[in-house]
């Protein structure tokens, strides 16, 4: 994978773990413990959602195995008669072969899919457990108008961000949108191996390979918005580049944003073993119009 670009001079030179000398300088609104009730509930929400996806995957293969079992039973239940023995024997053999194949394949794929997904989820959430036993993450809380603005940008009826499920209609997102809108606040969690955007996305850098982080600004006056996290989705034939935009609370300073950028970017290693990072950018006019 090719490096994207180089870091600006104002960011270059900052080193240290993600939360080192950064988290302590944040206001109380962005200094929330990972073990606090809202964040614990948020993590449990993502765990339950991923478990549900795992059950769906296993269920599909289990249905395939069930069809095979039915065909297998039918092959033994075909009535025997003296006439047309060869034809009935041929049917029995066909049902027996197809049924055995579907049953074996369904059970095997259910076990493999369940095991792989379980192992993947265990790794992802263990990354959070490691943080709980060591360094603390950086947690932002967006309240009121800041949350409404960000939610509309990411998940609203006329959302500007369409990196994930670009063809999905608003009716598919409406229940989650209404629930999060009524709540009037949301959290963004940055940790060493990924980030969580409230109930919307759990982004593990095991699946979304980190490519770089940019400062998100709206105009030539460097009006600050937050961060743009560039990733590479590893999904076989559907692998692709995608990014996630994160709006910062008004209490977060430019220096704090730059420290987060540097902390993430220095984790990236290019083919030559050197860290590769990227500069700040000016976002599209559509974001400017959204904020005006």
Strand content: 15-25%
Whole-Å distance between the termini? 37 Å
Order of helices and strands: HHEHHEEEEEEHEH
User: What is the count of distinct domains?
Assistant: 2
**Biggest sheet: strands side by side, in what order?**
1-2-3-4
Q: Label the overall shape.
A: elongated
Query: Spans of 5+ residues with little confidence (pLDDT < 50)?
Result: 1-17, 19-30, 270-290
Q: Structural class, from secondary structure content?
A: alpha+beta
Kindly state the mean pLDDT as a whole number? Answer: 74
Question: How many DSSP E strands?
Answer: 8
Describe the sheet with the most strands.
4 strands, antiparallel
Helix fraction?
40-55%
Radius of gyration (Å): 25 Å
- How many helical elements? 6
Keywords: Membrane, Transmembrane, Transmembrane helix
Transmembrane segments: 56-78, 93-119
Task: Give an overview of the whole structure.
By secondary structure, the protein is α+β, with helices and mostly antiparallel strands. It has two domains: 23-32 and 137-291, no CATH class; 34-135. It has six helices and eight strands; from the N terminus they run ααβααββββββαβα. It has helices at 37-77, 85-132, 144-155, 170-183, 254-265, 285-291; strands spanning 138-143, 185-191, 194-197, 201-204, 208-217, 224-233, 240-247, 281-282. The strands form two sheets. It has a four-stranded antiparallel beta sheet with strand order 1-2-3-4. A four-stranded mixed beta sheet has the order 7-6-5-8. Helix 1 (37-77) packs antiparallel against helix 2 (85-132). The chain is elongated, with a radius of gyration of 25 Å. The model is unreliable at 1-17, 19-30 and 270-290 (pLDDT under 50). Keywords: Membrane, Transmembrane, Transmembrane helix. The chain crosses the membrane at residues 56-78, 93-119.
């Amino acid at each position: 994978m090719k490096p994207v670009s180089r870091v600006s001079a104002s960011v270059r030179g900052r080193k240290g773990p993600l939360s080192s000398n950064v988290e302590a300088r944040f206001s109380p609104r962005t200094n929330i413990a990972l073990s606090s009730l809202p964040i614990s509930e948020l993590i449990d929400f993502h765990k339950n959602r991923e478990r549900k996806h795992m059950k769906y995957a296993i269920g599909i293969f289990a249905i395939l195995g069930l069809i095979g079992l039915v065909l297998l039973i039918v092959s033994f239940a075909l009535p025997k008669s003296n006439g047309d023995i060869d034809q009935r024997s041929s049917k029995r053999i066909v049902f027996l072969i197809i049924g055995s194949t579907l049953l074996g394949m369904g059970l095997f794929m259910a076990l493999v899919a369940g095991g792989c997904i379980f192992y993947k989820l265990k790794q992802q959430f263990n990354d959070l457990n490691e943080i709980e036993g060591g360094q603390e993450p950086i947690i932002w809380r967006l309240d009121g108008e800041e949350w409404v603005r960000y939610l509309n940008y990411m998940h609203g009826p006329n959302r500007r961000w369409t990196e994930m499920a670009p063809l999905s209609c608003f009716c598919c997102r409406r229940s989650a949108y209404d629930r999060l809108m009524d709540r009037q606040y949301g959290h963004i969690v940055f940790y060493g191996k990924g980030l969580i955007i409230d109930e919307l996305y759990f982004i593990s850098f095991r699946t979304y390979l980190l490519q770089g982080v940019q400062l998100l600004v709206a105009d030539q006056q460097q009006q600050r918005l937050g961060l743009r996290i560039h990733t590479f989705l590893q999904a076989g034939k559907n692998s692709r580049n995608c990014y996630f935009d994160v709006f910062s609370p008004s209490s977060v300073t430019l220096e704090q944003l730059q420290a987060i950028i540097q902390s993430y970017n220095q984790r990236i290693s290019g083919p030559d073993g050197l860290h590769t990072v990227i500069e700040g950018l000016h976002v599209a006019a559509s974001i400017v119009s959204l904020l005006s």
